[in-house]
Specification:
This protein is of the alpha/beta class. The chain is 40% helix and 16% strand. It has 23 helices and 18 strands.
Amino acid sequence: MSVRTRFLSILLAAGSSSAAAQQTMTGYGAAAAARQREVERDAIARPAPSNASMHSKQLSRETHVAGTPAQLTTASYVIDQMKRWGLETEMRTYQIWMPHPTSVHVSRVSPQPKSLALAEPPVSGDATSSTWQYPTVNGYSGQGDVTAELVYANYGLIEDYAQLDSMGVSVRGKIVMARYGRSFRGIKAREAEKHGAVALLIYSDPQDDGFARGEVYPEGPMRPSGGVQRGSVMNSNGDPSTPGYGSTANASRVAPSQMTIPRIPVVPVSYGNAAELLKYVRGKDVPQTWQGGLSFRYHVGPGPVRARVTVSDDRATKPLKPIYNTLGVVRGSEFPDEIVIIGGHRDGWGPGAADNVSGTVSVLEAARTVAEQVKQGMRPRRTIIFATWDAEEWGLIGSTEFVEDDSLRLGRDAVAYFNQDVAAQGPRFGGGGSPSLRATLRDAARVVPDPNGKGSVYVEWRRANAVADTAEPAMGDPGGGSDFAGFYNHLGIPIADWGFGGAGGVYHSQYDSYAWMTRFGEPGFQYHATAAKIGAVMALRVANADVLPYDYAEYARTIRLLIDPIERRVEDRKWSASTASLRAAVDRLEREATVFNTTRDSVLRGQPAKAVLERTNRALMQVERAVTRPEGLKTRPWFRNLIYVADENNGYANMPLPSVNEAIRTADEALTRRELADLAARFNRAADAVATARASLLGR
Ligand SMILES: [Zn+2]
């Protein structure tokens, strides 16, 4: 069937007021909704597990760390595919200060000297496990050659150092051994250095993702005794030599001594190697909660075991390395200046089948879907960009440089950003994002079938999480930790992300491979294809809407829940600061949004003019920007969005309403009062933007 006849039949169906045409779709008039349903049905049929598997195999053929030649190969692969489908493409290159290791050694000096074999050993049945692997060193580790006694510091959290203090144990001049988990590894590095450690070893305890959790690779999905979690230990986003602006070839650079990066060597080790050191540590017995899963009693030390850690890199000779973002563009037919972006990072620490070939594959299949639709005459009304980012693993670098480089246009024109990071490594759906887009994501999950054949992704999502009839499934808050940060935290652009999870025991290891994926992660690649179907539906739903489908009533209701804990913390401190004006502003936002939603639905029963829609949408795009402060957070100026941020003391935990909560944490009542007033004023401006949108819609 040609597209022209298909569109004709849709128009007839809409005109004949069929049942489908009567159903509502947020932001769409009845005729547009019927047409959109047809576009989405078509889109859902296109992403295919066989294509997903083929792309996955190609993109995970070799370790492709940012800054290595293999990463140019993956960029070329993506560009070639997108060109073949007829997309406009662009490879956007930045020069990143990103040292790569030249040598890494860890040895036990005493008792019984032993040099540890740091590389991950090959395993049978996994072809890429015996190919070149990236050295086991953390991204942005410092250089050094140190020999010292070992101290075991549990997870290396702030409270773990307080515990060590209370036991009379200092890490000053020592090598700290800490386990992964409970915090971002960059915070572990910062705290070890702050407390005077001369090096940090971070290991994957079997209790966290090894044999205590399940069979280990290659018998099962979990981390084997030789498996290593690599990863960056930088705590800021983007190239550390160009804070806040793009790392273009001629950009001015901050000197390494001025960068906020670790100074001490930070090396990740397997639990096999960790045991070679930890089993000889004596000194104080550990608090019971510090005992991990290795088969001996843990001790804190210090010593008597002494270790030597050596790290050197190429920062003196070749610190700048090119990175490659790829963009595939579909120009919108009616509102080409309004941009919907869907992206995922393309770099990994190993073959990266899950992290993040799966996300790249999802973006690719969504891109092919829309490209094929365009060829058949179904061009989206807004511009859609399909992006793959480089160097996410080093600190969200590719996406951050893109956002910083193009911040004026994105701040003005970006309608939404959708992120795909580990899009599929199992069957279990999870999603999140700005509260304004959660309803849209639920709607997309409702129309995409789950591969289990028992209904939609939404139905399976509810079932797997045993969600009560009266509730919606819980969704994640965008604190940070993936490529949406530049869009959301820096510019205040609404975002959503989703993926299908499972047992992930090979995170950031050479064993995150096609072999692992086909045996344990997602053997049939149906969930890869399903992530892409959701991506295509999300992009098209937003790109084709008459009125952008943000729900600022749900947004306001979600924010309101964040005020209660603030009120309790203020009362606990017996401060006179009040949350009343903040509460009033958020209430007003909800009222304005509720009225707007009703007005929108009734106006869309008519035929609003294009200029009316354009003005309305431009006003709606200002709502979340209004709660984004140009000067950023006091603690971190790059973070401008005042709704969510990653907790600066943890990195993984999410801190809501950070300007206020960080003021409370510093016990500064005057600042808390100022931040409450500032936030209330911004929510009032957000409510004003919704009111402007409503007036525009009514032609005022
Ligand atoms: Zn990732």
